């Protein structure tokens, strides 16, 4: 019981520091390069610090600021790794030129995929394209098409099942 109480007291202490210094921390994150994402980073910082089991912190504000700085470093490293990975992938993709045979096979497979999607029905195909190609949320699609959310989900499952069957044919 005491351990749970200590954890709760520590979390409330950190929460108090976060609340009292919110503007200062957000400004710090903005100056460190977060820009418009500073508010989101503050929320991430809040989650990291309040969910973690920690003991009492002797000087909580520097602790919070160091955690904010570490969060920015993590974001920077992730972005850098993503850039390097994307650049490497782009170079690899640009170097490899598909053969005529590969192009013909790809076109044939694309035609089979299109046929499978179309075979699920007009509404299912439209819902699938709005969701996967246009990026609309399932709720938005339901409202737009005048159907229930469960209908949208069922139609998406139908299309996914058809695509899985096509994929099994490709793998065979």
Automatic annotation (TrEMBL):
<feature type="domain" description="RNA polymerase sigma-70 region 2">
    <location>
        <begin position="21"/>
        <end position="80"/>
    </location>
</feature>
<dbReference type="InterPro" id="IPR013249">
    <property type="entry name" value="RNA_pol_sigma70_r4_t2"/>
</dbReference>
<dbReference type="InterPro" id="IPR013324">
    <property type="entry name" value="RNA_pol_sigma_r3/r4-like"/>
</dbReference>
<keyword id="KW-0804">Transcription</keyword>
<dbReference type="InterPro" id="IPR036388">
    <property type="entry name" value="WH-like_DNA-bd_sf"/>
</dbReference>
<dbReference type="GO" id="GO:0016987">
    <property type="term" value="F:sigma factor activity"/>
</dbReference>
<dbReference type="Pfam" id="PF08281">
    <property type="entry name" value="Sigma70_r4_2"/>
</dbReference>
<keyword id="KW-0731">Sigma factor</keyword>
<dbReference type="GO" id="GO:0003677">
    <property type="term" value="F:DNA binding"/>
</dbReference>
<dbReference type="InterPro" id="IPR007627">
    <property type="entry name" value="RNA_pol_sigma70_r2"/>
</dbReference>
<comment type="similarity">
    <text>Belongs to the sigma-70 factor family. ECF subfamily.</text>
</comment>
<protein>
    <submittedName>
        <fullName>RNA polymerase subunit sigma-70</fullName>
    </submittedName>
</protein>
<dbReference type="InterPro" id="IPR013325">
    <property type="entry name" value="RNA_pol_sigma_r2"/>
</dbReference>
<dbReference type="InterPro" id="IPR039425">
    <property type="entry name" value="RNA_pol_sigma-70-like"/>
</dbReference>
<feature type="domain" description="RNA polymerase sigma factor 70 region 4 type 2">
    <location>
        <begin position="124"/>
        <end position="163"/>
    </location>
</feature>
<dbReference type="GO" id="GO:0006352">
    <property type="term" value="P:DNA-templated transcription initiation"/>
</dbReference>
<dbReference type="InterPro" id="IPR014284">
    <property type="entry name" value="RNA_pol_sigma-70_dom"/>
</dbReference>
<dbReference type="Pfam" id="PF04542">
    <property type="entry name" value="Sigma70_r2"/>
</dbReference>
<keyword id="KW-0805">Transcription regulation</keyword>
